[in-house]
Design goal:
Strand content: 15-25%
CATH class of the largest domain: Alpha Beta
Oligomer: single chain
Shape: globular
């Protein structure tokens, strides 16, 4: 038996928390004891891990005694509130919120891209935004080979990105539309059933949303590419749990679709699905439940006179690679 670790999950009853529990189990993470933490209203709930039922406890300042890894998915304000408690107790905090992502002292890690950054932590490691994670897994190998200059992205983001209650809202609204009943949006600015909403997170002074700017700032930090140019439009779509992205990429060097397919086929965390004759391409329904990001529709940018541009379509499970899986993979890096 190798070394085993005590793990705490803060926000254990949320959509990402549940995925974290399942991911620890499926990947046989060496868990000695698992502590499930949530807000007061979830205390006493029982959640299954392997063959045992674990009772949810209240997230408190003293919740991290003897904990090696504290996986947080309880929102930015809770992360800020309890970070010092976790780190002072000796735990490594792996945080899924936006609280610390852009702090210079906090590594922002996607294990397929910048695993070495995880080792530089001072107690906290940030999990990037789900849309950014899915993007960099696909884009980084191409950047390494050909030097990415500019990225234009349109995203098709699942309701899971807004949480479990938002997913439920989409299902309820779908029935309401079919039954001709009135709809009152709660978690979204507008009706999500049979609709698209080009608005995720809050609007900034430059007309972009915070979510759209995360792609720029986080992408630069993770890929150590401070000059990367990014323009992004983030759209919420009536899909359950996998995000998709349409990417237009400009490189320093020429690159053909054939080269891109070879590079991606050899890259970690990617599955190439690119055979248009067979109608074989990435779709959120196929990415759901998958660890890998699916990449396809790879073609030369027809708007350019040179061969320095590519278009590519990707799909990735927002709750897995976009959140829970990435957090567990970061913990795995630190157990090695």
């Amino acid at each position: 038996m190798g070394k085993e670790f005590n793990v705490a999950i803060a926000g254990a009853t949320g959509a990402v928390g549940i995925e974290m529990i399942e991911t620890l189990e499926k990947r046989n993470f060496p868990v000695k004891n698992l502590r499930l933490l949530a807000s007061e209203r979830s205390v006493g709930k029982k959640l299954k891990f392997k063959d045992t039922e674990i009772t949810v406890e209240e997230l408190k300042a003293d919740s991290f005694k003897n904990i090696d890894f504290a996986l947080f998915s309880a929102g930015a304000s809770r992360s800020k509130e309890f970070a010092k408690n976790a780190v002072d107790a000796g735990a490594v905090m792996i945080d899924n919120s936006s609280a610390f992502r852009m702090d210079d002292d906090v590594p922002l890690v996607v294990p397929e891209v910048n695993p070495e950054d995880a080792k530089k932590h001072k107690g906290i490691i940030a999990n990037p935004n789900c849309t950014t994670i899915i993007m960099v897994v696909a884009v980084y190998p191409l950047h390494k080979a050909k030097g990415l200059v500019r990225l234009v992205a349109s995203t098709y983001q699942a309701t899971s990105g807004a949480g479990a209650k938002a997913m439920e809202e989409m299902m309820v609204q779908t029935r309401q539309v079919q039954d001709g009943k009135p709809i009152n949006p709660i978690h979204f600015a507008h009706r999500i059933a049979f609709n698209l909403i080009p608005h995720i997170d809050v609007f900034q002074d430059n007309g972009y949303t915070k979510e759209e700017m995360k792609m720029l700032y986080e992408g630069r930090k993770i890929m150590h590419h401070p000059n990367l140019k990014v323009s992004c439009t983030c759209v919420r779509v009536p899909v359950m749990r996998a995000h998709s992205e349409s990417l237009n990429l400009e490189f320093k060097e020429e690159i053909t679709p054939e080269e891109a397919r070879k590079i991606l086929a050899a890259a970690p965390g990617i599955e190439v699905r690119d055979n248009t004759a067979e109608k074989y391409y990435p779709m959120p329904i196929d990415a759901t439940g998958q660890y890998n990001v699916l990449a396809g529709r790879i073609r030369q940018d027809s708007s350019r006179d040179d061969k320095r541009g590519l278009d590519i379509f990707i799909s990735g499970d927002q709750l897995l690679k976009g959140a829970a899986l990435n957090a567990v993979q970061i913990a795995e890096l630190l157990t090695k």
